[in-house]
Amino acid sequence: MEAKDKVYQLQADILKALAHPIRIKIVEFLAEGEQCVCKIVPVAGGERTGVSKHLSILTKAGILSARKKGLYVYYSLKTGCVCNFLSCCENVIAEQFKEKKEINREIKNR
Questions:
Q1: pLDDT for the residue numbered 110
Q2: pLDDT by residue (tens digit) across 30-59?
Q3: Is residue 49 in some structural domain?
Q4: Element holding 37 (H helix, E strand)
Q5: Could you tell me the residue range of the domain that residue 14 belongs to?
Q6: Domains identified in the chain, total number
């Protein structure tokens, strides 16, 4: 595999890791700063084991870092630029709705 193809694969792996609503919710929550799993679970929703699996996926993808302190595990974003990507996604969504609204208006005006 060429170096450029390897980069594409790594980018795809990161996007796959983000491709779940709970994981996006976790990333947005951690944008506020490092948090203990005990604080992440209620925000993410679902069972602790499920949330732990999501945290593991995000960590393996290099999006989160984890540190253990006593009985607790704390997670944080490795790089805040992930949040910039999520903001970009919101802009794409807004543009889609804008286009749909314009199309619906055009259909109604026929």
A1: 75
A2: 999 999 999 999 999 989 999 999 999 999
A3: yes
A4: helix 37-44
A5: 3-78
A6: 1
